[in-house]
Design goal:
The strands form two sheets. The chain has a six-stranded mixed beta sheet with strand order 2-1-3-10-4-11, with helices on both faces. The protein starts with a helix and ends with a helix. Helix 6 links the parallel strand 6 and strand 7. The protein has 345 residues and is α/β, with parallel strands linked by helices. It is globular, with a radius of gyration of 23 Å. Helix 2 (47-53) crosses helix 11 and helix 12 (255-266) packs across helix 13 (270-278). It has two domains: 36-117 and 220-344, Periplasmic binding protein-like II (D-Maltodextrin-Binding Protein, domain 2, 3-Layer(aba) Sandwich), CATH 3.40.190; 121-214, D-Maltodextrin-Binding Protein, domain 2. Helices cover 49% and strands 17% of the residues. The chain contains 17 helices and eleven strands. It is found in: Periplasm. One of its GO terms (biological process) is alkanesulfonate transmembrane transport.
Length: 345
């Protein structure tokens, strides 16, 4: 019995020694920077994709020993799940999913507006359908990803015609929309690129997010950052926005060159890339912090009210159950990083 006890004790000592000899991979570089940054993306030709194709993230991060990992998300729903698990540091999404993130008290903050959506989100009906206008959708089946900018725009379009209670709405991811469309299981769909181009091949557009924006229903894609990251590395958040700005500036200077660059990474044609890029408004850092958009932390811009109105909309739709306060909204929308970027420029 004593012999076995000695063996057990000696075995334990060996395990302890081996454990002590195994070095854990450090999460930071010797300069106190993160070894890797996980960035969520939605794979559309916007400022982020141009910056990726230009290797801007390599210039700002990889050359400082920081690896940038890009993760594709089909929707903001899955991006929020990744934020909840702490597995990503940044992610872009439709701003309605940012409302959901705030409602669920995810540890994130909104730092950037990628673009104001226009004709790159639209309501499409089957080509052989007799539907000619939104009002004709009464009694029809319409698919859209719930809690998305497309969902918001669709319901606003239906409300404009007073038929929001007279249609069947189906919650579908973009890939499922394409499959249902090809089977003709649905009469219409409100979605974004590149799914939009797929269904437009056998469909007709009857309204777009540009049409709805003209009626006061602005929608936009935004970028969120995990608070654990932004609180520890605020300068890197500004660097991240600087990368996005490089993409915006390159596109503004030469749209054709930018489209040629991103089309290869997105596996679409140059014409498709350019069409999608021209369908939305890309904001400069100065526009980001203007009264029309984010504003500043001291003087919130128009987007704050859009965000608050959308909270009420999602409460009505029962997409969220907890209503964040206006104060919580102003704290959630943190324009200080964009302000620092403007000062840096």
């Amino acid at each position: 019995m004593k012999k076995w006890r000695k063996i057990i004790i000696l075995g334990g000592l060996v395990l302890c020694i081996l454990s002590a000899c195994v070095k854990k991979e450090p999460s930071e570089t010797s300069e106190g920077l993160p070894k890797a940054i996980n960035i969520g993306m939605i794979r559309v030709p916007n400022d982020k994709q141009v910056a990726i194709s230009m290797k801007q993230f390599d210039e700002y991060f990889q050359n400082r020993g920081i690896e940038t990992k890009f993760l594709f998300f089909d929707s903001g729903v899955s991006a929020n799940q990744a934020f909840a698990s702490g597995s990503i540091d940044f992610a872009e999404m439709g701003y309605t999913n940012a409302v959901v993130a705030l409602s669920k008290e995810l540890p994130v903050e909104l730092i950037w507006l990628h673009d104001v959506l226009g004709e790159n989100e639209a309501l499409v009906v089957q080509e052989d359908s007799e539907i000619q206008r939104v009002k004709d959708l009464k009694g029809k089946k319409i698919a859209t990803p719930f809690s998305s900018t497309s969902h918001f725009s669709l319901l606003k379009a239906l409300e404009e015609e007073g038929i929001q209670e007279d249609v069947t709405l189906l919650d579908m991811e973009t890939a499922d929309i394409v499959a249902a469309w090809e089977r003709k299981d649905i009469d219409a769909a409100y979605t974004w690129e590149p799914t939009l181009s797929r269904i437009k091949e056998t469909g007709r557009v009857i309204t777009t997010s540009a049409d709805l924006a003209a009626k006061g229903h602005m929608t936009t894609n935004v970028d969120l950052v995990r608070k654990g990251f932004s609180e520890k590395y605020p300068d890197l958040v500004v660097d991240y926005l600087a990368c996005l700005t490089k993409g915006q500036e390159y596109y503004t200077k030469d749209p054709n060159a930018a489209a040629t660059m991103v089309c290869q990474d997105l596996n679409i044609t140059k014409e498709e890339a350019l069409t999608q890029m021209e369908a939305s408004k890309w904001l400069t850092p100065e526009e980001e912090i203007s009264a029309d958009y984010l504003g500043t932390n001291q003087a919130p811009g128009q987007f704050h009210q859009v965000f608050i109105d959308t909270i009420d909309f999602l409460i009505e739709q029962k997409s969220i159950t907890e209503r964040p306060t206006d104060t919580a909204v102003h704290q959630f929308i943190n324009s200080s990083y964009a302000e620092q970027l403007v000062v840096r420029k």
